[in-house]
Amino acid sequence: GRNGRRLGMKEILGYSEIQPDGSVRVKVPANIAFYFEILDKDARRIGPIHGNWLQVNAGDTLQCNGCHRHPGGNSPPLPLPHGRAGADAASINIAPVSGFYTNTQDPASGSPYLANTGDTMADALSRTLAVPALTPSVSVEYSDVWTDPAVRTPDTDFSYLYSGTSGGNVYSLTTPSPTTAECETQWRAICRIVINYIEHIQPIWEVDRGANTCISCHTTDNAGVAVVPSAQLDLAETGPSDEQILQIESYRELFFNDNFQQLNGNALQDVLIQVQATDDNGNLLFDNSDPPQPIFEFIPDPSLRLLPSMSANGARASYFMEKMTETELNARRALSPVTVNHASMLTPAELRLIAEWLDIGGQYFNNPFDPAAP
């Protein structure tokens, strides 16, 4: 996967459902660069970042048809052109040929969804329920409007919200929302989801969950007494990192390799080993005695080097997300045996926020105009 952080600060425009035939029809703001991502039911990106930016003028319709790959014997297959009408791939969607989708009905009217010849499901849905079907949302919401209850029980609806009351299959945050209250109730072209680490992610570690509060275990300070943080991961906001003064320690702990630490009295220190010192060219160093004696130094033990638990390549590529769901995803790192089960410690709304932040690169800031941004 491509490193998402290299693509810079990013905002999210909104979300739209993929219909059962794979079709999507949605409004986007005019005259801005955007790209799209395909997500699973838990709002985590499937596959690598799209990486190609699109743009439309007011009133334009842009149609994307399946994968952008040349057919036949290219090795490797090359991307088809973007932005050239008629040069893109043929649609992989087989649309209906007559007037109704069977076994479906519009819950508002009680009538089947009307489809013209050649319509996809997204076309039929947007024609019947014009505003809900075309307008995106800052919430991740699913409603099974296509299943005929006479055939089988429809899939369960669910909603991941930023604000509001949680209950049933509706999940919302208790921490600050990354968008405005107006955008949560009525999406407009100026609506954006802007996620900053200190403002929106760090508060999740500090939510009071009783014994399961993140910073109760993942801290180096227990009521003034130094402790080794659980899993060697410190999530407490303890000030600037000693590696990067513009970032707090917890962010560095999540995204960068770290030294294994142990207690020395009431202080934490890196676990060190003694090795022979080398110069800038890697040559072993000796002193001026006769015969010359090796010069030794102490360095952090590389065999205990800790790998980061989060990846800017996305939520499914992050060991953190595997551990918080106790599920193997795509982190390419074996899930450790369950000593403390983390699967229900964070809420679905919190996991959704962390996932979308990771999927756009896990940047410290996503707003270049933020006064706190360097």
Explain what this protein looks like in three dimensions.
With 374 residues, the protein is of the alpha+beta class. The protein is 16% helix and 8% strand. It has 8 helices and 9 strands. The chain has helices spanning 121-128, 130-134, 181-185, 197-206, 214-217, 249-255, 319-325, 348-359, and strands at 140-142, 158-160, 170-171, 221-222, 225-226, 261-264, 267-270, 272-276, 296-300. The strands form 4 sheets. A 3-stranded mixed sheet has the order 1-2-3, with helices on one face. A two-stranded antiparallel sheet has the order 4-5. A two-stranded antiparallel ribbon has the order 6-7. It is elongated and about 95 Å long.
Task: Annotate the secondary structure layout.
Blueprint: H1 121-128, H2 130-134, E1 140-142, E2 158-160, E3 170-171, H3 181-185, H4 197-206, H5 214-217, E4 221-222, E5 225-226, H6 249-255, E6 261-264, E7 267-270, E8 272-276, E9 296-300, H7 319-325, H8 348-359
Parallel strand pairs: 2-3
Antiparallel strand pairs: 1-2, 4-5, 6-7, 8-9
